[in-house]
Design goal:
The chain has 20 helices and seven strands. The protein has about 475 residues and is of the alpha/beta class. Helix 19 links the parallel strand 5 and strand 6. The relative contact order is 0.16.
């Protein structure tokens, strides 16, 4: 059921505001880390997260979903930044937005129906594993107190909601443990250790690149890759949030919204971004449901940087690590272990392959595309089984064909006929099959030509209108022309 504008914005004001605050606090280290991955100043990721979150709150198609700078996008930017610098990255971000808007207008979200459930489960589980793996460098082998703070954070976010739900537990953990770390002078890594934060708003400027075809040649491959990966991750995340909240989203509007957000962000010094599964899960689990939570996340992010910058840099990393571990645990589909045992072997293999490829490459798009291709291959293998039975009826040799006839089943179809027969009446019954493609018509041609060459009289019956139309248009065995009927 589609929500009204009022419901999208003001049906959950208190929950959205508190959830947005939690998300903003968790966005800062992520944005800085992704900037470092891309090889740019930390403010590029922070400005991107601010701009994208604020803009997508108004133009996106999935209320309550968080979009900002992401690791998957940052990885694609590394070669461009290294070879050509920040201005070309910003130009590529603007072009990425244009491409995504075009995809949205073309209703590219229809591709979601081609992503099987096994791939979706694999995507979610791989993302959970990547979120956890990204936290490991921030707490393993650093200090005993780091482990203690991670443990206390996890205890607060899991145990406190049993007794107190008025304020999101992650927000309480961040505030209390940051104060404790500052006043007890614990030796812990902080947000400030990731990179310097400038307390200033983003400003409008045009990327300093030549407006010519050479520039387009440089940035277009990167922009196209960013547009595809960004939309794929955003649409998959939207589907996951749909399931978590029991609500529907407008996927094509989300595609256009992501494009608008990236297009504008490029003019304000931000890098391209997309939906974030981790932050979206934090938002939902903290009570965020509407567009207001996304807007608050973006606005409070800038408030934190400009007004509370001196405090933000002192937030202990172990606290944020604990929250992200909670996110990875909550994101992982624990029923997958049962799924592996009960699902068809092909589906279980596709799910495990998707997880393995994403974790190995750290590229969500490669894993999802590989999973879809594997699913398609298994599906083709499954439906390519065609059965041709032979019987003698009223002096005629009758071949009854059952199953879809297309490129993957033509070899078995051709091999099912006896080509040694001479001067016989042969009837081929296609009443229980469908002719799907040119390969199928070609196979029928081969069978007909070889049977007719031995002076047999061959009749084709049972073709449905679509199959008959395809044969009439493409077949070449019609000299001599066999009798073709549709009864």
């Amino acid at each position: 059921m589609k929500m009204s504008l009022r419901e999208q914005w003001f049906s959950n004001v208190r929950g959205d505001i508190l959830a947005g605050i939690v998300v903003a606090l968790a966005l800062i280290p992520e944005a800085i880390a992704f900037s470092i991955i891309a090889g740019v100043d930390p403010m590029v990721g922070l400005y991107a997260s601010f701009c994208i979150a604020v803009i997508i709150a108004f133009v996106g198609g999935r209320p309550g979903m968080i979009s900002a700078a992401t690791g998957a996008m940052a990885l694609l930017m590394v070669p461009l930044v290294k070879e050509h610098g920040l201005d070309y990255l910003l130009a590529a971000t603007i072009l990425t937005g244009i491409i995504q808007i075009v995809f949205g207008v073309l209703k590219v979200a229809k591709i979601m129906k081609f992503i099987p459930r096994a791939v979706m489960i694999g995507f979610v589980n791989a993302l959970a594993i990547l979120i956890f793996m990204a936290q490991v460098p921030h707490f393993v082998g650093i200090s005993t107190m780091t482990y203690v703070f991670v443990a206390i954070t996890l205890a607060i976010v899991y145990l406190l909601p049993r007794f107190f739900k008025a304020i999101p537990a992650p927000l309480i953990a961040i505030v209390i443990l940051t104060i404790a770390a500052i006043y007890l002078n614990f030796d812990l890594r902080t947000v400030g250790d990731l990179g310097a934060i400038q307390r200033s708003l983003p400003s409008f400027f045009l990327p300093n690149v030549p407006l010519n075809f050479e520039t387009l040649q440089i940035i277009f491959p990167y922009s196209l890759a960013l547009a595809i990966v960004g939309l794929l991750e955003s649409l998959l995340t939207a589907t996951i949030v749909d399931d978590m909240t029991g609500t529907e989203s407008e996927k094509n509007r989300e595609a256009r919204g992501q494009g608008i957000a990236n297009f504008i962000t490029g003019f304000f010094g931000g890098m391209a971004g997309c939906a974030m599964i981790g932050q979206s899960v934090i938002n939902v689990k903290s009570g965020g449901r509407g567009r207001l939570s996304t807007l608050v996340a973006g606005l409070f992010l800038m408030f934190l940087i400009i007004v509370l910058g001196n405090w933000v840099v002192q937030i202990p990393m172990p606290v944020l690590v604990g929250i992200m571990i909670m996110v990875s645990i909550g994101t992982f589909d624990w029923s997958s272990f049962t799924y592996i045992r009960k699902a068809p072997k092909a589906d279980a293999f596709v799910m495990l392959a998707t997880v393995s490829i994403v974790v190995a490459t750290h590229d969500l798009s490669i894993g999802v595309i590989a999973g879809v291709i594997l699913s398609a291959l298994f599906f083709v293998a499954k439906v390519s089984k065609i059965n041709v039975k032979q019987r003698l009826e009223s002096g005629k040799i009758v071949y009854t064909v059952k199953g879809p006839l297309f490129f993957a089943s033509v070899d078995h179809f051709i091999a099912s006929f006896d080509y040694e027969r001479n001067e016989q009446d042969i009837l081929i019954d296609f009443g229980s099959t469908q002719i799907w493609d040119d390969s199928a018509v070609g196979a029928i041609d081969k069978v007909m030509i070889r049977l007719l060459a031995n002076q047999n009289h061959v009749e084709i019956v049972g073709l449905n209108p679509e199959s008959k139309k395809l044969i009439d248009r493409l077949a070449i065995h019609n000299d001599p022309t066999p009798k073709i009927s549709t009864h």
